């Protein structure tokens, strides 16, 4: 019988991470079986607009990973951390898998020249205390200089693309236990010091296989295509984890190459039969608005298998815009797969059904803000949500975020998850780990509790709908407002650059106050003060909320995450601390 405590139940995912199995041991298997077939292709757009393809076969990748692991054994012992400070490349794949083969705990990070993230990188290195840092030959000086500028105890620094690799030979590598740590996946750290999620080989392999099952990632018939950063949870599993689990080829690009010209991503999809890819919501809208008609003439998207949309609430208008833009290129609506996930669950938690366009439901907006999901009637202010589908092999329940009591279907609460893909805690943070990962009741067999995601959602007609994030709720005068609703209203004004608005709340002398930060549209030349007043009135009419402040910034100046998404938390911090308002236009 179904109970409230398990509001969404799916057949359990395959928990078959056998003793001694890891992403690196799977690479050995596929190298023997697939040999000279291409395993990894990196499209390097730094040398030309069309990109230069750098490829590694399964055998070449395995040889390089073995050679690196042999070198690593000189500098570190199993269980010590190996941080990866490199740009997106095939070498990054070698670094990650080489660390795992050597029995080290990989820490996927980024090169220190990533703009605006030096402070985060220094904080992460201080937290994980790596014994060795992996980079590329052209990054050695930059990485060494950065490390010298921090308080981090100096680790060894190795270039993984050295021209004279050490032969792997017949080295006997440590056979990892399923519950041994594979890597640390650091969270964004936008509201606190970044926290490293401890992911075991069992967690990583289980979720990679869940992704393969969910998205039809199958040997030889498909390939993954990704511009997502390999230091992000989805980028790592899509670009490395799932290909290792299924023995499929992976095509990688740099995030900047996508942002410069999104048609590059779509051309890579066209050139990869049976392609599976993923992107956050903003990237689909960005692609639809930036790809020209001439560029579309080169696209053939009828063979795309799955396009994953996750990491934030999926907007119906974005889905419609993307498919309207590329239907003429053969794109089918059913390939769009709305998903929900987070780093603490390795990545994937739920996904919409294959072969069908994601379900959309229009809810009464005021009732939804009050915590009840009821379809909207005629003439009622509404919010349309896109389903996140069903669990990919976990259990999901919905709980009251204040009391922790489980709520009935149809009521909004915190999404909580339990399953073999859930990480074991935060690195070096036992108290935070117990609060987030150890919610009762504990499973008597695994000893695992429930994960408190911090995300709000509701079960409606058996499917999961994400409504927002607890930390992002705008609460003014005792009423809840979802920031994405406010942002959509703001972006209807011609003065606002598309997909640039951030709505958040701050503490004010009279209580919580709503703030809107946005970028001015490039072609808009009218008075900003007048536009700000019009935006205030539009938000007041649509939401019964008058923003305390509307801040116009120049194009590209609203704070974003390293993958290009608007970060409400970074906006809030910059607004309160002062730097953001110092850049105010007008």
Automatic annotation (TrEMBL):
Q: Which InterPro entries match?
A: AMP-bd_C (IPR025110), AMP-bd_C_sf (IPR045851), AMP-dep_synth/lig_dom (IPR000873), ANL_N_sf (IPR042099), FAAL/FAAC (IPR040097)
The biological processes this protein is annotated with in GO are: Actinobacterium-type cell wall biogenesis; fatty acid biosynthetic process
Q: Which residues form the AMP-dependent synthetase/ligase domain?
A: 28-427
- Asked if the record carries the keyword Ligase, the reply is yes
One Gene Ontology term, aspect cellular component: plasma membrane
**UniProt xrefs under Pfam families:** AMP-binding (PF00501), AMP-dom_DIP2-like (PF23024)
Q: Where is the AMP-binding enzyme C-terminal domain?
A: 472-581
**GO function term, MF aspect, one:** ligase activity
Q: Mind telling me which Gene3D superfamilies this protein's record contains?
A: 3.30.300.30, N-terminal domain of ligase-like
Q: Which family does it belong to?
A: Belongs to the ATP-dependent AMP-binding enzyme family.
Q: Which PANTHER family match?
A: DISCO-INTERACTING PROTEIN 2 (PTHR22754:SF32), DISCO-INTERACTING PROTEIN 2 DIP2 -RELATED (PTHR22754)
Q: What is this protein called?
A: Fatty-acid--CoA ligase
Q: Which organism is it from?
A: Amycolatopsis coloradensis
């Amino acid at each position: 019988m179904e109970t409230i405590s398990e509001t969404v139940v799916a057949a359990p995912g395959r928990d078959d991470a056998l003793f001694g199995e890891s992403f690196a041991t799977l690479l050995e298997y596929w190298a023997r079986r697939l040999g000279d077939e291409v395993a990894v292709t990196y499209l390097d757009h730094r040398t030309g607009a069309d990109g230069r393809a750098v490829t590694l076969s399964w055998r070449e990748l395995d040889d390089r990973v073995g050679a690196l692991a042999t070198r690593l054994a000189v500098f570190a012992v199993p269980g010590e951390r190996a941080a990866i400070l490199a740009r997106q490349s095939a070498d990054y794949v070698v670094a990650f898998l080489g660390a795992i083969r050597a029995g080290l705990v990989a820490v996927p990070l980024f090169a220190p020249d990533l703009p605006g993230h030096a402070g985060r990188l220094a904080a992460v290195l201080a937290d994980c205390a790596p014994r060795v840092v992996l980079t590329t030959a052209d990054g050695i000086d930059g990485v060494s200089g950065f490390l010298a500028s921090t308080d981090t105890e100096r680790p060894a620094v190795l270039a993984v693309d050295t021209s004279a690799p050490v032969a792997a030979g017949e080295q006997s590598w440590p056979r990892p236990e399923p519950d041994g740590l594979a890597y640390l996946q650091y969270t964004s750290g936008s509201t606190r010091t970044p926290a490293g999620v401890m992911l075991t080989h069992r967690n990583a392999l289980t979720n990679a296989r869940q992704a393969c099952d969910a998205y039809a990632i199958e040997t030889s018939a498909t390939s993954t295509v990704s511009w997502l950063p390999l230091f992000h949870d989805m980028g790592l599993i899509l670009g490395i984890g799932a290909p290792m689990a299924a023995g499929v080829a992976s095509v990688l690009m740099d995030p900047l190459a996508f942002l410069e010209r999104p048609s590059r991503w779509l051309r890579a999809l066209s050139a990869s039969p049976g392609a599976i890819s993923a992107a956050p919501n903003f990237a689909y809208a960005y692609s639809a608005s930036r790809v020209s008609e001439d560029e579309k003439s080169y696209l053939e998207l009828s063979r795309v298998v799955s396009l994953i949309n996750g990491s934030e609430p999926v907007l119906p208008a974005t889905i419609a815009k993307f498919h309207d833009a590329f239907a003429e290129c053969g794109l089918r609506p059913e390939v769009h797969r709305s998903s929900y996930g987070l780093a603490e669950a390795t990545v994937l938690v739920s996904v919409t059904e294959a072969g069908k366009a994601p379900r959309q439901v229009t809810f009464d907006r005021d009732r939804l803000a009050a915590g009840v999901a009821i379809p909207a009637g005629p003439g009622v202010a509404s919010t349309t949500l896109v389903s996140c589908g069903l669990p990919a092999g976990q259990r999901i329940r919905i709980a009251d975020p204040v009391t922790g009591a489980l709520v009935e279907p149809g009521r909004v609460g915190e999404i909580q998850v339990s399953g073999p893909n859930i990480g074991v805690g935060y690195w070096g943070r036992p108290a935070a780990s117990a609060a987030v990962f150890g919610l009762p009741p504990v499973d008597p067999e695994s000893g695992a509790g429930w994960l408190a995601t911090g995300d709000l959602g509701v079960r409606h007609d058996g499917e999961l709908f994400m409504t927002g994030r607890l930390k992002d709720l705008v609460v003014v005068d005792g009423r809840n407002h979802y920031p994405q609703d406010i942002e959509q209203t703001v972006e209807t004004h011609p003065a606002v650059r598309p997909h640039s608005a951030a709505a958040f709340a701050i503490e004010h002398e009279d209580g919580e106050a709503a703030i809107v930060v946005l970028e001015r549209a490039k072609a808009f030349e009218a008075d900003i003060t007048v536009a700000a007043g019009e935006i205030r009135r539009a938000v007041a009419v649509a939401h019964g909320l008058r923003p305390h402040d509307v801040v116009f910034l120049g194009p590209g100046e609203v704070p974003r995450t390293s993958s290009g998404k608007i970060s409400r938390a970074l906006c809030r911090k910059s607004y309160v601390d002062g730097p953001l308002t110092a850049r105010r236009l007008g």
